[in-house]
Fold RNA methyltransferase.
Amino acid sequence: MLSQRQKKLIASMANKKFRDEYKLFLAEGPKIVSDLIVSGMKPRLICAAPGKELPKVLVHFEIIEISQKELDSISFQITPQQVLALFEQPKYTINYNAIKQELALVLDGIQDPGNLGTIIRMADWFGINNIICSKDTVDIFNNKVVQATMGALAGVRVHYADLAEFLGTYTKSCSNPVYGTFLEGNNLYQEKLLTPSVIVLGNEGRGIRDNIAEYITDKITIPMYSGSRGSESLNVGVSAAIVCAEFRRVEAYSK
């Protein structure tokens, strides 16, 4: 059974202020919790309700047994998933020497938690180690972001920085291309895509800000299929997946 103090701590994870103060974040579900642990994340508290057998990795930790009713009362999910845990927030520093030798993503003002979570999950799938976010991008430790990553959070280093400052330093330290996704740009499938490089993805509504666009060397776009009825744009998570898949395809088959 959880103490009132523990319940209060879990509830406080809804607020970024307290997530930052306690240096913690919440994850829910047997798979996500176990994946984070296997990837090296440190759990501060784990609680579980009766149900199916728990993942074996959890037997190495102290688990607070709670009722389904208690889980329902503390969970942030509409349908609670048996296991809930608090993890210590990982802290990363931007390593320019490493980033300029690989493919990295830059996110300019992504606001939707689902979009950010999807992009992190996609980055993990394509072996992208670093994502640099503008300071107004949604918090990576927002519960909806954590759940949308499906455990991929531990596989990608997510940084928050002044993007103009980051790109200024990056472009001065190397001659790598800086690609940016725009509605009007060079056809992604006809462009010479080079790695190492960075790919800039813009806000869901306004796109890439002008002061960030100044650092972009190559504007790219995903061409609309000739039979399309003319959708206004693609979801930023979908766009990120298409662009990164093409970069990895070119990288793999041009050798």
